[in-house]
Each structure stands twice: as C-alpha cells, then as structure tokens.
Amino acid sequence: MNVLVFNCGSSSLSYRIFQASGRNEPRDVASGKGHRVGVKGTEPSFLEHHVGAVVTRAMVPLKNHRETAVLILRHIKHTGLRVTHVGHRFVHGGSYFSDSVLLDEDVLAALNACAPLAPIHNPTSLSVIEESRKWLPEAVQFVTFDSAFHATLAPHAYTYPLPRQIVKAYGFRKYGFHGLSYWYVSRQAARLLNRPLETLKIVACHLGTGGSSVAAIDGGRSVDTSMGYSPLAGLVMSTRSGDLDPMLAIYLMGTYDCRPDYLMDVLNKQSGLLGLSGFSSDLTDITRRASETGDERAELALQMYIQRLKKYIGSYFLVLGGMDVLVFTDDIGVGNPLVRARVCQDMAWCGLSLDEAANRTADPARPCFLEAKDSKVRILAVPTQEELVICLQGLSLLEGREP
Amino acid sequence: MIVFDPHPPLLRWYALRDGKSDEGQCDLARGWPVAVTRVLERPEATGAVAYVLHHGGEVVRSPAVAVSRESLTAMEEAREFLPEHNDLTFKAARHGLELFPDLAHILLCETAFFVDLPPEASVYAVPYELRRRGIRRYGGCGLGHQWAWRRVQSVLPRAPRKVITVLLGDRPSLAAIRDGKALDTSIGFTALEGVISATGCGDVDPTIVFLLESSGMSLREINDMLSRRSGFAGLVGRRCGFSELLRENGPAEKSGAREILRYQVLKYIGAYAAVLGGVEAIVFMSAALLDSIGFITGICERLGPLGVRRSAAVAEGNQLRFVTDPSGLVPAVWLEYDRTKVLAEMAGSVPAQGDLEQWSKREDSS
User: Fold this and answer.
1) Partners of residue B225 in chain A, C-beta under 8 Å
2) Where are the beta strands (DSSP E) in A169-240?
3) pLDDT, tens only, B141-166
4) How would you label A312-324 residue by residue, b for 16+ Cβ within 10 Å and e otherwise?
5) Which residues of chain A does B137 touch, with a Cβ-Cβ cutoff of 8 Å?
6) What is B2-117+343-358's CATH topology?
7) Model confidence over A229-254: pLDDT tens digits?
8) How far away is chain A from the Cα of B29, in angstroms, using its nearest Cα?
9) Considering the entire predicted model, what is its pTM?
10) B144-341: what fold?
C-alpha cells in the first residue's frame, strides 16, 4: 500500500508518500514541501518535489494551504503513483479526539466543530482534507492529532484555575501540540544516546517556521509543554504572540473597542516576530538584519524569541528535576545555529555547554550532538519526521496495534 | 511614620511610633478620622507621612520619593493607570501636604522598581500599534521585592548578586533581580498575569477570553470571572486565602490549588534562573513562617538541581531564618513579610528634606 501523508504546518505544507508492506519500516518513495505558504516576508515561496534522487523546485506563489494542496495532488497524479491511503495531521482535536481516527462523515463533522480551537491550523487542515477527498476519492483517509502526546500531563500542569463549572462547560485546559514531533524526537534521542527512553529526562524544543513549542518529557511521557488550550500560548512565534496577560485582550476590546475577531487575528497572525520586527515573520530575515545592520527592532525580536525559550528551558529543567538532553528540532531547531548558540549562552547553571564549532557546522539533515566535552547535558539537533509518525499511527490504526 | 494605602473605597493607614504599630481605615469622603489626625498632629512622633501608589505607569520612576505639591501635580498623570486606587492616593497626599506642610511626605510606588525592566521582559510580542498604547509589563508589589533584595544583601555572609524573590500570600508574585535591578517579574500589564492568586486565574491561554466573549459573556463578566472568581476560589468553590490554602485537611486540600501554586512557583524560579544566568539566593517572603514553612520547604526540596541543599535548618528567633542548609551552593532564606514594616522601611530609606538638599548639592558637584 502507498500512504500519502499531509503535514499541515502554519506556514508550510509537507507531503510524503510511504510504501508500506508487512512489518518493515515504511519506505519513503516521494516527498515535497510548499515553503512559506502565506508568509509575509522578503523571501519568495516555493514548492519542491523529491522523487528518489530527483529534486524539482518551482518558485510559485503559495497563497494558502488549499491551493498548495491542489498543486501537490496534481503533481502526484502526474507521477502515476497510486495512493491507497491518505493521512493528515490535525493540530487540535479538543476533547473529541484523543487518538487517531479513520475519516468518515461523522468524524468530518466533529473536525469542523474543532476548527475554532486552533484558528490558524484547523481550518487549513480541513481545506487539505477536502481537496484530498476530491482528488483521491477511492483512498482511505485517516487523521492524527498533535494534542494526543500530551494526554499524560498531570492536573497541576494542565489545569487552568477558573471556576470549575466554566472549565467543565468549555473544556478549558492545557492541551499542548507538536505531539507527533515530540513522540518521534524523544525516541530518536534515546536511540542515539543508546539509553532506554524510560530513563531519560528530555527538554525538547520544536522550533518551526510557523509555530514553536517546548516540552518536558520524562521517561517518554510528556509532563508539561508551552502551548496551551490553543497554539497561541507559550513561545514567541513567527506571527503568534505567545504568553501574554489575559487582561490585555479584555482591555483592548473594552478600551479601544477592538473587535474580538480582529484582535484574535492580530494576536495570531500579526504578532510574534512579525509584530516585534515590523518587517518579517521569518527568523532568517530577522537574524540576518540583526547581525548585519544591528537593526534595533530585529534585535528586540530575536532577543525576545531567545529569552522566552530560555525561560521555558529553565522551568522544565526544574520540573523534570534535571535534564539529560536538550533537543532542538524542526526547521529553525536544526537549521539556525545562531538561535542554538544564543539559547545555550549563560546556561552553564543548568549544565549546558555548547561546542561552538560543532554547532556552526551541524548538518541540518542529520542528527548531530552539539555539546562541548565539559557539558553535563547532551545537546542534540535532530530533524523531525512528523510524516513518518503519521504514517505509523495510521498503519497501527488500520491493524489495531500499538505503533 | 504613618503610611496610607488605598483599598477602594477605603483608605487604610498604618502607624509606626516608638516601635509600636497601629492601623485602621478611613473614608476620605468623610474627612480625616480622629485617630489619623491625632497621629499627624504630633509631628515629632510622626516623622514622615507616606502614601502608597499602586500603579505609577511610566510616570513615577522612583519606588520611594519625597513629594511637594508641585512634584505631586506632575505625578498625577499616573492617575489613569489605576483610577480607583490612584485617586485615593493622590487625594490623601494632597490633603496631607496641605494640612502638614512641615512634615516629610513620601510617595511609595509599587510599580517603580520595574519601570526599567529590560525590553525583553517589559515588551509583549504584539504589533507596535498596540505597544505604543502603553501596553507593557508594569509589574507590581515592587516595594516588597526591592525590600527583600536589600535585606538579603546584609543577611547572607556573601552578598548575593543574582536573587529570586518570592512573595507568598493572597497575591503571590516573583521577581528576578541582579545587582539590585529587576530583570523580570511575574505580574504583567495587570496583576491578573503571573501565578495563581486567591481570586485571580494567573497565566492562562488568552484564547480563552475570546471564546468566552463569543459565547455571549460581556467583557465585564469575563473580567470579573478571571480576576475575582478564579484562582484558589475557583478551584475550592468558595473564597479561600493563602493561609487557609495551606491548612492540612482543610476544605482546600482536595482542590489541587496548593499543588498548582507550588508548581507554578517552581516553574517561575526555573525561568528566572535562566533570566539571571544562575541564581545565588532565593528569598521567600510570607506573613507567618509556621503556616508556610511546609509549603516553602516543599518547593525547596525540588530546587536541588539549582544547588539548594535539601535539609531544612530553620534557626529560631525573630531574625531571618534559613529555609535550607545555609552551606548549600544556593541558600534559600525566609523573610517575615509585614507590610507595615516593609512600607515604613522603604519610606525610611528616603533622605529627609535637609539631607535631600545636601544630596542634590553633592549630585551637582559630582
């Protein structure tokens, strides 16, 4: 069987086709990615396809995820690959979904009901699901959820201290996201360290071009994470503000008569790095301008991005009662040595010491250990493989076994 | 010394004379109650009058400063930041200056210690359009945090440069302080942000506000729910103060509120260790040690990775007590937080008028 996996990021759309047979690890036969989907930056968007060793790249405007999905599905049709299954990443399953599901009309209705929970992600995932059903009507479709990995959080970590009846009525709690990625990188870290996952205290930073989060993982189980009920909370992200005083929302709506949907849009799509720098949501643009021109706003954006991340690492170091390995993953995590260097600066107190040379020359495509010899904590940059996790979870769903 | 502290609609006062303290509250609308006037009519015993300003915005930049009628007028620009409270403060100060022009009058500001937070702490990651409307982290309870910093300098054998201060009570807050300067604090634009409090929700995903709004709640109702019906009260199901929260086998026991507070304080300590690049002392402040010692040692037991030694060695006596083994790399100390004394000490640190003239001359010549 051939499993097509769509991974809908907030500013990217990746796909991968796996050939799966029996108990063997699924084999990756084709893949591709739409970069900077809907991004306001100086760099153009583009779409790339990999088949075997052949790479094609097209500079095309990628206005939104639906259009990108259509370009990808049309490309797949041209290659002649027969797709039997389609797997989707869905960010927020709310209290409807705590595990992967096969798609049917009821599930689709429930997914639609989840749309407002993650206003950037869920609607875009839905648009990709719709296009997939249109273009591949015979294929079996399934959905996996980013919030499922954090189901292990303890009440003191997930509870919002609001009146009980409100919490009950609305399902308010910390859900957390990027679970597929954390599932994968924590297992990779254990494999690369050659230690049982059950013994490891891991702080993992999933730093994407759109959304970013941190998780504290103890023995393979998530104990805390920076995103909350929605993906708005936590780190400073490309266009999301991350943590802020909830009274700000009330104040702005009340005092300046900001419409709720407008303000929600500002906090989700015009804040974070974009709001701070005033010119780009792309950390690459910002680090470049900060180091080349010393632009104050670019430096502020970068400094806030780093500081917020360091604070979460410090918190989770105490929450875990120590740290065996600090993991960096996703595009910025593996691809931006400057971010890693600045995060590890002045962090000797929690045992972090980075090897500057190893950090500079690390290959973004491969797992690399980056700690200096005197570091008490291992530092690992490892590319994530959310698509593989989606595929594995789909296969286990079809066979009714544990992934 | 007498200190006026607004608690709308009333004005609380604390008097400290000859080592004895006295307190009460008055309604400004009805004029000065007899007790207060009596205190103020004996200037030789009173020494100075201080007024607490709960929110000075970016206008009031000194935690404790002597005021005249002129300088007060300039500071009244800060009224808007917290009109209900600030109105009382300014009214009382104007009143005091008029009635007793010969006394020293001091304005104590709860946000001034945080007015120069570094931008990465004070700025919210929102567009400049919103930031320019005065949206920033102002902090709060700055007098207590600054007082704790000063006290711990003289208490420890080696003066610590990187300190985390933890104020425990109905409105807990934390601050990260290096070389006397605040680098971060848990209270944000308002006191709603930060750790869970007796009635406030603390840090929650802001998306929640929008969902409540779209379900038909008014902004006033949302505000009331998040600031007055959440926190310990929301979890316990009725009003519950900090000391009641700590009581073993009390009604709060099963609510999980104590564990949430403990966990949030722990997370902030870790975050501030990162902000400071390590920590040299942790200072806990609470009203009564006996009530909170179990809670505080519970936190300290999880600070081992910071270099705090587990064994709890609490020295007896009224003086400062170590919560943890003082020979550990990072000592945790406890300070009795008596608001009257803290405010009086902070007000007392302002040079008297004569000294002030000399001081400004020295400034001129240097």
Assistant:
1) 162-163, 166
2) 201-207, 212-218, 221-225
3) 999 999 999 999 988 888 999 999 99
4) bbbbbbbbbeebb
5) 245
6) Nucleotidyltransferase; domain 5 (3.30.420)
7) 999 999 999 999 999 999 999 999 99
8) 28
9) 0.92
10) Nucleotidyltransferase; domain 5 (3.30.420)
